[in-house]
Amino acid sequence: MNIPFYIVDVFAEKKYTGNQLAVFLEAEALSDEQMQKIAREINFAESTFITKLEPENNAAEIRIFTPEHEMKFAGHPIIGTSWVLMNRVFENQPEKITLSVPIGEIPIHQSGDLLWLQAAQPQFLDIFSAEDFLSFSNLSNTDFDDKFPIQEVTTGSAFVIVPVKNKKALENLILDKVKMDEWLRGHCKTNHRALYFYCLEETKLNSRMLYIEENQLKEDAATGSASTCLQAFLLKYHSPEIEIINHQGDFINRPSQIYFDGKLANDHFDIKIGGKSQFIAKGEWEV
């Protein structure tokens, strides 16, 4: 059995930047094990599998896999998969579609060369002390931006949001994998455990997402799900309206731009993230 697939770069202003994504069509006959093995073989941060296609409704159901496990929600796979459907698969090239993922339906719309997703309402979980991070990082107390808390936030996938004062602290960041893993396992409320460091200097937002997978400390080039959490965090603690570009991936030579457009009113979070996708390749995968 052969199935078609596409490769795109997501949150990418040009080719060979942003976060890579493989999108597999006609995946309804694949088992969970087959999807996981394919995701491990291609070894991108995530791969998506389209298990149901409804062109008449401009809708699709997808599943998202990292090389190690399935995700309930992830931003760059949703943006990238939507770009493939809207620009390569659906003949009417709609401006709006709906993707169904395990946490529910995600509305997507295209405006120019930007695709936008609407995130679910956030949950704000535990707040942590900066002292916790001194045991597994090279950060000092003066590196943290104490105008903001350190807090775990989720809009479907959870991240510990860690504010630092400047880009230099981000660039020089070193983490001890073993101690970091022990801390994450002991403190995070969900099975998805990751750290999202950021700094907000005037109008420039920079970030790094670090996590442990397959017993390795990894860094993500562009993390849409973490960006929805960070946007919610900034709406709550910084400003009830935000329109800014989140720069991620600079320190691993995969520069990415994730567009924020959010509002907080009457305890309701209107969280939208957007980005550009670049077509890289298409082909057939022999299962």
Architecture overview:
- The mean pLDDT is 96.
- It is built from 6 helices and 18 strands.
- It is of the alpha+beta class and 287 residues long.
- The chain is globular and about 55 Å long.
- The chain has 2 domains: 2-119 and 275-286, Diaminopimelate Epimerase, Chain A, domain 1, CATH 3.10.310.10; 123-273, Roll (Diaminopimelate Epimerase, Chain A, domain 1).
For the record, what CATH class of the largest domain applies? Answer: Alpha Beta
Q: What is the terminal separation in angstroms?
A: 6 Å
The structural domain count equals 2
User: Ranges with pLDDT <50 over ≥5 residues?
Assistant: none
Number of helices: 6
Strand content: 35-45%
Question: What fold name goes in the CATH topology slot of the largest domain?
Answer: Diaminopimelate Epimerase, Chain A, domain 1
CATH hierarchy: architecture of the largest domain:
Roll
Descriptive tags:
18 strands; alpha+beta; Diaminopimelate Epimerase, Chain A, domain 1; 45% strand
Please summarize what this structure is.
The chain has 287 residues and is of the alpha+beta class. The chain has 6 helices and 18 strands. The N and C termini lie close together (6 Å).
Secondary-structure topology with pairs:
Blueprint: E1 2-10, E2 19-24, H1 32-42, E3 46-54, E4 59-65, E5 70-71, H2 75-89, E6 96-101, E7 104-111, E8 114-118, E9 123-128, H3 130-134, E10 150-154, E11 158-163, H4 167-171, H5 177-187, E12 194-201, E13 204-213, E14 216-220, H6 224-237, E15 241-248, E16 256-265, E17 268-275, E18 277-286
Parallel strand pairs: 2-3, 4-6, 11-12, 13-15
Antiparallel strand pairs: 1-2, 1-18, 3-4, 4-5, 6-7, 7-8, 8-17, 9-10, 10-11, 12-13, 13-14, 15-16, 16-17
Helix pairs in contact: 2-6
